[in-house]
Specification:
- The structure holds two protein chains of two kinds.
- By secondary structure, chain A is α/β, with parallel strands linked by helices.
- Chain A is globular.
- Helices cover 37% and strands 25% of the residues of chain A.
- In chain A, α3 (93-100) runs parallel beside α6 (138-150).
- Chain A has ten helices and ten strands.
- Chain B is mainly α.
- Chain B has helices at residues 2-32, 39-60, 64-92, 100-122, 151-173, 175-185, 187-192, 197-223, 230-245, 250-270, 276-290, and strands spanning 127-128, 136-141, 146-150, 225-226.
- In chain B, the strands form two sheets. In chain B, strands 1-4 form a two-stranded antiparallel ribbon. In chain B, strands 2-3 form a two-stranded antiparallel sheet.
- Classes of the chains: A alpha/beta, B mainly alpha.
Chain lengths: 249, 304
């Protein structure tokens, strides 16, 4: 579904990605874990064309989208619930969701069905539908960010740190929803997380990013059991994984 | 009392015109974060197009005043919108992503360029036009003073009210308005959701220019004289109105326009007509000192 081949990207003069290659197959949850500043969010944004990859290729369903403008990538079926959620603060929950449907050129009936689906997944959003986005709690904003991304009926969902800053019970709600979406709707998810334990538990496969490059990859269960990964990201996280091309554990 | 009422009518008329221009400033500021200092010139061009259209339509005759007015209004809105679109395309889009100062300088450059362009093409002398709509209603007859409300004034107020209501509906209810507000709040996120940001910005300029063209056409009908320099003062006044109401806020621009018009009318009516601009700009200074975000604006810092 998504294939990234040797992507390089810069933020200003800082090189954030140094030749990242990975792929996400249809129907999978693939997670990308790594420390703060490793380049995970940049990778997701690069898939969306902002910043554009300076070198390398990004293929989505066989098409080279590397040079497409951001809005065209969204309309092709990639939805992004980005870092910091980026809810429109002065729009209501309903309007935020309507904005999510921009990428899909659909009739009203399909749109209404999607809205019902999102409200079914997150009943809290239905209760708050006329409230402004900026007044929601962090957890509600995260639900809204995911709900908004779902409104376009995407083929691939990019999720950036959905657990950030949330209470444990809310993290569980969000991750349950992601797993449900994947299991019942067959939605393909590419999940970036610092909460490696939660992410690896729901994911099929995982990649570990260090310093703008993939250091390790493999089955989620294998990564979860791996000594190095445990030391670096799970058991207190004081270990280190060396940068560079790593093999499967 | 009669005198007061007359100033009120004059002020509201003037305020309606300022309000229509101010919307263009505030919308562009909201979406791209820059002051389009060439907007006053766009309004001036709208007025010129109206004069030319009247001149062409006049000899043709037929259809009566109402039809002629509608045609002129539409022609002016359409052609001025093309100017607005081109302005953004040539002078601002290439500079997107560069420091704000670059766009500001480009705007001032375009303002000077458009003034000179009209001066060269149309001549530096003022253009006068025969009144198209004459007459009015006597609202109140006092012993020494008669309050009149001219048909032009009625038309200006009714048209402005209708346009603002329509425009407000577009912004609040339609997908275009939603996209516009989304771009204003977070442009990068709007793009991630599939909004063509460049197109939305272009449309913002087009709408702003069309509203300014209406203001230009009405000024032609109201005063009957224009020249290539009218955009400067009207532009600055409308900008003042936008800041007074809270730059970025559309109701603010409408309110600010009305207030500036009223201040000007009452000041000229009761104190001195020479100092009416001083009065308007003094109010701006006071607002900036005591309420920097304007009457209906929100503070810059925002908790998200």
């Amino acid at each position: 579904m998504l294939r990234i081949d040797g992507a390089h990207a810069f933020y200003g003069h800082i090189q954030a990605l140094r030749g990242v290659s990975l792929d996400v197959q249809e129907g999978e949850i693939v997670t990308l874990i790594g420390a703060n500043g490793a380049g995970k969010s940049t990778l997701l944004m690069t898939v969306c064309g902002n910043p554009r990859a300076a070198a390398g290729e990004i293929l989505f369903r066989g098409e080279d989208i590397t040079r497409w403008p951001t809005h065209r990538i969204a309309r092709a079926g990639i939805a992004h619930a980005p870092e910091g959620r980026r809810i429109f603060p002065r729009m209501t929950v309903m309007e935020n969701l309507q904005m999510g449907a921009v990428a899909a050129a659909e009739d009203d009936a399909r749109r209404a069905a999607r809205l019902e689906h999102v409200f079914g997944l997150f009943p809290r959003l239905a209760e708050r539908r006329f409230q402004r986005g900026g007044t929601l709690s962090g957890g509600e904003q995260q639900m809204l960010a995911i709900g908004r991304a779902l409104m376009s009926g995407p083929k691939l969902l990019l999720l950036d740190e959905p657990s950030l800053g949330l209470a444990p019970i809310m993290v569980r709600t969000i991750f349950d929803a992601i797993a449900t979406l994947n299991r019942e709707d067959g939605l393909t998810v590419f999940l970036v997380e610092q909460n490696a334990y939660m992410a690896l538990r729901i994911a099929h496969r995982g990649y570990v990013m260090v310093n703008g490059a993939i250091a390790m990859s493999g089955d989620a269960a294998a990564l979860l059991a791996d000594e190095e990964v445990r030391a670096a990201y799970l058991d207190g996280g004081h270990g280190k994984i060396a940068a560079g091309e790593g093999g499967a554990p | 009392m009669e005198y007061f009422l007359q100033q009120l009518i004059n002020g509201l008329t003037l305020g309606a015109i300022y309000g229509l221009i101010a919307i263009g400033y505030t919308m562009v500021y909201g979406i791209v974060g820059m002051i389009n200092f060439a907007h006053g010139e766009i309004y001036m061009i709208g007025a010129f197009i109206a004069v030319i259209a009247f001149a062409i339509l006049g000899p043709l005759g037929g259809g009566g005043v109402v039809v002629a007015l509608l045609v002129v209004l539409l022609v002016s809105m359409l052609l001025t919108a093309v100017y607005g679109w081109t302005l953004e395309r040539l002078a601002y889009r290439p500079l997107r992503g560069s420091p704000r100062l670059a766009a500001l300088i480009s705007a001032i450059g375009m303002s000077i360029f458009l003034q000179n362009y009209v001066q060269l093409a149309q001549g530096a002398r003022t253009k006068a036009m025969q009144p198209v709509i004459t007459g009015g209603i006597e609202v109140m007859k006092g012993e020494t003073f008669t309050v009149t409300l001219s048909y032009v004034q009625i038309m200006i107020m009714v048209l402005t009210l209708a346009l603002m209501a329509g425009f407000w509906t577009v912004i609040a209810r339609t997908p275009l308005g939603r996209a516009q507000r989304a771009c204003e709040q977070d442009r990068a996120m709007a793009a991630l959701l599939g909004v063509d940001v460049d197109r939305t910005i272009s449309l913002t300029f087009v709408i702003g220019a069309a509203l300014a063209a209406v203001a230009g056409t009405m000024v032609v009908l109201y005063y009957g004289v224009i020249d290539f320099f009218i955009g400067f003062l009207a532009g600055i006044k409308a900008f003042t109105a936008a800041v007074l109401g809270g730059i970025g806020s559309i109701p603010g621009a409408m309110l600010g326009g009305l207030l500036i018009g009223l201040i000007e009318a009452f000041w000229s009516g009761y104190f001195s007509i020479e100092y009416k601009d001083v009065a308007a700009f003094s109010i701006l200074v006071l607002v900036l000192i005591f309420r920097p975000s304007g009457l209906l604006g929100r503070p810059e810092v925002e908790k998200v």
